[in-house]
Write a structure and sequence with these properties.
seven-stranded parallel sheet, 15% strand
Length: 253
């Protein structure tokens, strides 16, 4: 097994499916011990078993990161178990599309809670441990990678609230990067577009039709493609930082 990330601990939110699962497995393949955080305990336990059977190290930590107390407890459990935290991948997300007029505002609340509050709570809880790892480690660097979206740069009709959350993730990432990069914690945002995961499966009606139309002329990315991007960002030499990475499919039209 490669050991690029040996003696490091990585926390991945939204690890029970899609990009989060693929990322956790890829980081484990590169030698990191991975802490798997999501609400679905059964899926986390399955993934932890798969990682272990492949020769890696994994800890399943069921938690709802939209609850600040649960996010803080999850981070503390990980640090208590492994003794450190070197990498944070904020992947948990929800995409619910639709116009502002006639919208289900409860869906807005769910999306804002996961995409914005969950990321903020987990980052706030993890930061002291990441800073300590950067100061104490021979690696002399820790990493935060926030999974955003091209919707954090480009707005489309019907994406309003989703755009708002992802623009917010991008702005928060850039602000945090300026605040702590000189303290040996690298901060970057990865912006995928056109990934085939269950993220879009929550959408029906016109939103579903728009998504399907996009894929008619585009070969969708796989979660493994995004996992490759995350791994690229966190395995750079310590003096190199990837502040922003777009991962886009090739136009097949």
């Amino acid at each position: 097994m490669p050991s690029t990330l040996s003696q490091t601990v990585a926390l991945v939110t939204g690890a029970s499916s899609g990009i989060g699962e693929a990322t956790a497995r890829r980081l484990a393949d590169n030698g990191a011990a991975v802490a798997l955080v999501a609400r679905r305990k059964d899926r986390l336990d399955e993934l932890a078993t798969l990682v272990t059977e492949a020769g890696g190290t994994a800890l399943a930590v069921p938690a709802d990161i939209t609850d600040r107390g649960q996010a803080e407890a999850a981070v503390q459990r990980i640090v208590d178990h492994f003794g450190r935290l070197d990498i944070l991948v904020n992947n948990a997300g929800l995409m619910l599309l639709g116009p502002v007029v006639g919208a289900d505002v409860d869906e807005w609340d769910r999306m804002i809670a996961i995409n914005a509050k969950g990321l903020l709570y987990t980052t706030h809880a993890a930061l002291p441990h990441l800073l300590k790892a950067a100061d104490d480690s021979e690696r002399r660097v820790a990493d935060i990678v926030n999974i955003s979206s091209v919707a954090g740069r480009v707005a489309w009709s019907g994406y309003g609230v989703y755009n708002m959350t992802k623009f917010g993730v991008n702005g928060f990432t850039e602000s945090l990067r300026q605040e702590i990069t000189r303290r040996h914690v690298r901060v970057g945002v990865l912006e995928p577009g056109g990934v085939a995961t269950e993220l879009g499966s929550h959408n029906t009606g016109p939103a579903r039709a728009d998504i399907d139309a996009f894929y008619e002329n585009t070969e969708a990315l796989h979660p493994d493609d995004i996992a490759d991007g995350v791994t690229y960002m966190v395995t750079r030499p310590r003096h190199m930082s990837v502040g922003e990475l777009w991962v886009m499919p090739t136009d097949q039209a």
